[in-house]
Design goal:
single chain; five-stranded mixed β-sheet; 381 residues; alpha+beta
Length: 381
Amino acid sequence: MRGRAPVIILGLLLALLLGAYILFSRRVVLELRRDAGRSGQMYARVFRALADPRPDAGNDALLDLARHIDALGVPVIVTDDKGVPTAAANLPFKAPLSDPRVRDYIPYLDRMNPPVVERGIGMVHFGDSQLITSLRFIPVVLASLLVFVFLAGLYTLRTRNRADRERVWAGMARESAHQLATPLSSLSGWLELLREQRADSLSTSAIAHMEGDLERLQRVSHRFERIGRPPRRDVVDLGALVVRVGNYFQARVPTLAHRVTIVASGGNEPLTIEGDEVLLEWALEVLVKNGLDALAGRGGRMYITTKRLDPDRVRLRVADDGPGIPREMRARIFEPGFSTKESGWGIGLSLAKRIAEENHRGRLVLTPSEKGATFDIILQG
């Protein structure tokens, strides 16, 4: 639903604009019919007066025509030769002819239409009817409709292309997990054979590490299977997760030249949340790998910790004392495809952010620090 929300909003806005345009068009048609009816009545009144033999028939016809003209809603101000208002109709305010607002309204009417000069009477200043004023908004409405249709079409195409790409990647990831299952099973069998053989302490230690790597490969295979599927809602012990990830990487980082030390602490209190442990471990490993890349060739320390911020929020923090992230790059580090490394794909941080925000309704932020880089995953818990 989150991915379809913008499409729904655009559809509602488009439907609202179309509905408003249809209602407005019906109103314009009704107004035009009324004006046509009034014009017909005025013509009929003129011909009736011409056929009426009474002496006052012409005056009656003129008064009747004046009433019909007033009914058209056209604002009119009549002034004498000195510019003093002598008559007015359909003004947007009620005021006597002596009111200064009546005279101040004359330039506004003249900007709409040039006044009509009548000798012996003065000048007739008139504006546009309400219908004409309303018709000015039709181009704006039509342009808005076209813009919304264009944006909706563009967004639909982009969303469709993105959805197609995600389906392809999800299919490839699941197929990779399926293909990995066979060699993983084979490796597991070979390790069983090696354990049955008598070996020295070095071989025993190597077998233990190989088992750890095999278990990790199996977890990675499970990650690929989760791509494109709804995240699970299991009880996850964040302290145990942090310690497990820290111990795994500590056994595989340099310990001689440019020594790297990883300090993983699960805190003094148990922190559990409802989430997908496989995906959270993936996001945490992305942050740890980024920190190790920053410490490569120089050594340093990395801290992986957990903390309860308040009754409803917990924090996973990965901090290192490396060179940090340049200020000009901080705003883009979560963009897909952007990487500070020459050989980087720019996928890791964007993936971790997606796991935190879309799969767990949390946040992944780069926290300001005096030295190195500090990433916080804020989760509900």
